[in-house]
Amino acid sequence: MKPKHIAIIMDGNGRWAKLKGLPRKEGHKEGANSVESAVQTALEEGIKVLSLYAFSTENWARPKMEIAYLMQLLADTLSKFTENKYKDVKLVFSGRRKGLPSMILNKLDKVIEATKNHKKLTLNLCLNYGARQEITDAVNKIIAQGKTNIKESDIEKNLYQNLPVPDLIIRTSGEERLSNFLLWQAAYSEFYFTKTLWPDFKEKDLLKAIAEYNKRDRRFGKRK
Questions:
Q1: Which of 57, 9, 4, 72 shows the shortest CA–CA distance to 198?
Q2: What pLDDT digit, counting tens, does each position of 197-214 carry?
Q3: Fewer CB atoms near the end CB (10 Å): N or C, the chain?
């Protein structure tokens, strides 16, 4: 059975550029092409939710010029999801709005509104996102509601998005850690690590990850 929800830690843009003797921005630019490839493949394969770790709360520590380029590239990429070829993609956003440039917030809001009735694939863009921050924000929401006896279900209802938990989490570039991504939701996710750098991660690579997932025996803590 194919995964319903795939989440991807898109890693390796800088290393890809360095290996080719190119500026880092060229790695990010090619990485944006891989985003479009992943979305298109997810659509074709009938995946219901695709979560992409686009920019973490820790990424603000990068050089200002790189951040400015990333934000502009993000704005340009977001615009593409109102094109007809993505008419089946619904965009949602996970992360903190505070700290994001108004240009990005305005673009996000427009695309989210324009795609809200699309049904085939939900694209969950994790932007200015950190899993610890998400859990902290959820708990603070619950406290603000006046609840004191907090249950797991309360936290789940107050996460950034009410989505199915990820069946498969992919990380590119050879690193094997979550890096503060979907810590609550990943309790029983399957993991797939590949040395392929994100700019080189295309359709065949995502299909390979899905095929590997289909070999897994998921028991969710139960004995068979």
A1: 9
A2: 999 999 999 999 999 999
A3: C
